[in-house]
Known about the structure:
Elements: H1 2-29, H2 48-51, H3 59-79, H4 81-102, H5 112-129, H6 132-145, H7 161-178
Transmembrane segments: 12-31, 62-80, 85-103, 109-128, 135-153, 159-178
Main location: membrane
Keywords: Hydrolase, Membrane, Protease, Transmembrane, Transmembrane helix
Amino acid sequence: MYTRYRASIIFPLRLTFVIWLVFTFQFYSHIDLGFLGVYPRTVKGLVGILTAPLIHGNTQHILSNTLPLLFLGITLFVFYNRIALWVFINCYFLTSILVWFFGRPFYHIGASGVIYGLAFFLIFFGLFRKDFRSLAISIVVVILYGGLVYGMLPTGSNISWESHAFGAFVGIALAFVYRHMRNLD
Length: 185
């Protein structure tokens, strides 16, 4: 059992490590990697579908994404290991693809779209399944991250509310798709 929990934290830890590695490179080299974000409906913005969640604008940005990414990612892999990788990958890529198609024309960067996808998956998965464990996880995520709902509103011109909204949409859609899966851990 201990081995399973240890294995469950590896993927979220590795992604967080890569994010911090990219940020450290950007910080010490004084190279703004924002051009690797998603720039909607442009060829140059396609690279951002792969790289945007790895790029963060400043220390506050990366710090505000690190703990939620770790907590939600580990929760996903511990409790829903059978589908966790697919949920994570879809939250990562589908969110960025939707931002590329429908976002405002500027560089969208950061892991918050993935975070919104994971949070909304964990919340709605419990609501759709209605089993005790999934509902308990939903309640914990709502208590800790219920305020994410406000991040989907267009508040700041430099905040990608589109990533937040599309991440939430992807998370809800994935929760609906996987709601009947059995033997999830």
